[in-house]
Amino acid sequence: MKKQIIIVTLIAFSFPSFAWNNHAGITYLILKDHWKDQKTPMVKVESLKSFLTKEKNSIQETLSISEEWALARLPHLTKTKDELKFSNLTKESDIVTQFYKALRVNPNHKATLYVQSVPKKNGKLHPLGQLTTLNEKGKLVNETFLSLQEGQMIGADEVLVSATDEPDYDLDLHLFEDSVSEVGKVYGFGYQPFGNPAVEYSSQAPFHMGFFYEPKIIFTLAGFLKRTYPELRIHQFTELSKLAFSKGHPYWGYRFAGWALHYIQDLTQPYHSSVLPRVGASKQIGVQLVSIVGYQTPKDNMIQFVSGRHTLIEEYQYYLIKNLIMTKNWNHPVVTSIMAFGANDHVEWKSLDDLRVNVCKEAYDAGEPTDEQLENLNIPKYETLYEENHPIHTILASLLRNTSKHTRAYLDALPKKN
C-alpha cells in the first residue's frame, strides 16, 4: 500500500520541462568569453548523410563503445536489438534513419543544415517545419533560424550554440513502449517511468533528468526513478564527436558535442537533478493518503507550488537571456556570472564517470536553497523582467555560473581537430 502511494505521488510530481529553456543563448554568452582570447575555428558544413556515408564502417563500433559503457553504468538499460544496429551495408537512402534507430532516438528527427541566429542577423530563413516534428512549437516560434549550404564555412561557435538547443526539438520524443510511436515498442526502454508518454515534451523527461541523490526510501519505494538516460545520450554523442574530429569532420565534431552539452546543461538545473526539493518522503506519502480519503487540497497545493517555482525559473531565464543579448547588457549580474571566469575558476572534465559527482550532486545540493529562495520571492509566475538588483537575478546567477563552469570544462576536453 505504501509503495503504491509514493509511486502515485511521485508520478504526479514529475513535471515535463525544458530545464534551461535557452540553451543557445546561455552557450552564446559562455563562448563569447571562453573563446575571446583565441581565434574561433572555422569548419565546413556537412550533411549528416555525407558524414555517415563516409564513416559508415566506424559508426556501429563507436555506438557499441557507448552501449558497453552505459550497460555497465545503468542496470535498467537493455541491449540494442540486432535489427536496429547500424550496418555498413545500409542503403544510402536509409542511412540517416538507420543511424537514428541505432542511437534509439526519434527516427524522424531532422538534422538539417541551419544555425540559430543568436544574436539575430540577416540570412535565408530556415522554415521551422524543416527543423522539428513537434506539433506544439512553443518558444521556437520566437527564434530565428538561418539555412546553411553544404560546403559553406561557418564558425564553430555558431555550430555549438545551435546544437545545444537541438535535442529539445524532438530527439527523445515518444521512445517508450507506451508511447504513441512504433519505435517505442522495439527500442527496449520499457514503459515510461515518469511523465506522461502521450504528451510531447513530457515523453522526453527520463532522457533529460537524472536522480542520483534522493533518500534511500525514495529509491526503495519508487525504483523507477533510477530509470533515467541522460548519461547514455552524453556518452553516445561524445563518442560520435570524437569520431568526427578524428576522421576530419569538425562540423559534426562540434555539432555532436553540442548535443551532448544539452544534457549536461540540463543536469545543472536543480529541478532536473532532484525530484522534489524540500518535500520529504513522509510528506509525499501524507498528502497522498489524505487525498485518497477525499481531502485533495494539500496535494493540489503542493503540485501547484512546486511546478510553479520550476516553471518560473525556466520562463524567467529564457526571456532574461534573450533580453540581455539583444540589449548587449554585458554588465548585468547574470551575464557576468556566466562570462567572468578567470583561470582559477575553471574545473577539469576528466570523464563522464564523474558527471554524477561534479554536476548532478552540485545541482541536487542547490535544490533546497534554490526552491526556498524562489518561494520567498512570492512570484507566482513570469510576467516581467525585474531591475538588475532583484534577488531573482542572484538565484539565476548562482545556477548559471555552474552551467557555465561545466560547459567550459567539457569544451576544453574536446579533441578538437580541423
Automatic annotation (TrEMBL):
The keyword Signal applies. It comes from the Bacteria. InterPro entries: PLipase_C/P1_nuclease_dom_sf (IPR008947). The keyword GTP-binding does not apply. Residues 1-19 form the signal peptide. One of its GO terms (molecular function) is hydrolase activity, acting on ester bonds. Keywords: Signal. This is Phospholipase. It comes from Leptospira biflexa serovar Patoc (strain Patoc 1 / ATCC 23582 / Paris). The lineage of its organism: Bacteria, Pseudomonadati, Spirochaetota, Spirochaetia, Leptospirales.
